Amino acid sequence: VQLQASGGGLVQAGGSLRLSCAASGRTFNNYVMGWFRQAPGKEREFVASVSWNFGITYYADSLKGRFTISRDNAKNTVYLQMNSLKSEDTAVYYCAAKLTTRATEYSGTYYRQGSWYNYWGQGTQVTVSS
What we know:
By secondary structure, the chain is an all-beta fold. It is 0% helix and 49% strand. It has strands spanning 2-6, 9-12, 17-24, 31-38, 45-51, 57-59, 67-72, 77-82, 91-99, 119-120, 124-129. The strands form 2 sheets. Strands 2, 4, 5, 6, 9, 10 and 11 form a 7-stranded mixed beta sheet that branches. A hairpin with a 5-residue loop joins strand 5 (45-51) and strand 6.
């Protein structure tokens, strides 16, 4: 499985960016895709996740309403639309993938943990200037 994240860049506070994560290497029907971010000097944190087959989404509570995760099955691509960006959103953003064998795996809070995911992309830098 290969994950290629892109779309990062420099944006002013209040602006928007859309990140993409192109997935390849196999069929992703039973996968959960996640976005994480890591700011300088901080731990990696969960941003959002989506199940590839049913499109069930979860978000970090602090980002609800500003960030939207979606997927395009035909393009094998997951997106993270980020609006009303703030300086504290500055971070390297990573996409990740988890193969699930049961629907119940995508429940509880496991999907919020980076260790739950099997595969990671290389990250894309997002810098928000104030």
